[in-house]
Design brief:
Helix content: over 70%
Shape: elongated
Number of strands: 2
Radius of gyration: 20 Å
Structural class: mainly alpha
Largest sheet: 2 strands, parallel
Distance between the termini: 31 Å
Strand order of the largest sheet: 1-2
Strand content: under 5%
Number of domains: 1
Length: 176
């Protein structure tokens, strides 16, 4: 009879789930409109070690803030010329992506370029054009993402398996 070896659940898996849980709790406590972006931030930042999580989180914070600022000014410009909104969007968004990638390189944060562009495009493409205040829309997206980033950093730094549990848990979970 052939035995199937099922891999153990890794500690990164557990930490990611706890970071998502913390993001959901924080989003609830602070009455955030959506916990979607905070949960994505938590999942994307959790890495195999705290040092990697920290560097990923810094890149994500830089990219989120830069993409948010660029998205805000682009939205303001597009909404000012609302009669040309679609045509301007087709022209300006690819140019904006290129500028943002280059800006991240100038800031010596190439790891921030992808998330910077994702935030920029999310803000500029997913806006409800009837929204009253673009600043608060952008600020909400940035704050939501930062909640998840901080949750991942806190969980990865402080969630450790107690030594006395390691032997028992080792049967089910990879605890290193």
């Amino acid at each position: 009879m052939m035995r199937i070896k099922i891999p153990k659940i890794g500690l990164r898996n557990i930490k990611t789930a706890v970071a998502v849980f913390l993001s959901l709790i924080l989003s609830f406590i602070f009455a955030r409109e959506s916990s979607f972006y905070s949960c994505i931030g938590a999942v994307m930042c959790m890495q195999s070690s705290y040092d990697k999580t920290f560097m990923t989180s810094i890149n994500r914070m830089v990219g989120t803030c830069l993409g948010g600022v660029a998205g805000y000014f682009t939205l303001e410009f597009l909404l000012y010329y609302v009669q040309y909104y679609e045509a301007l969007k087709i022209i300006l968004l690819p140019i904006g992506v290129s500028i943002l990638i280059y800006t991240c390189l100038l800031l010596k944060k190439p790891g921030a370029s992808a998330i910077c562009c994702v935030v920029f495009l999310n803000i500029t493409l997913n806006i409800d054009r009837g929204i009253a205040n673009t600043f608060w829309y952008v600020a909400d997206r940035v704050v939501d993402t930062l909640i998840g980033i901080i949750a991942a950093m806190v969980v990865d730094r402080w969630l450790k398996v107690p030594t006395k549990w390691k032997k028992y848990l080792a049967r089910f979970v990879s605890v290193e």
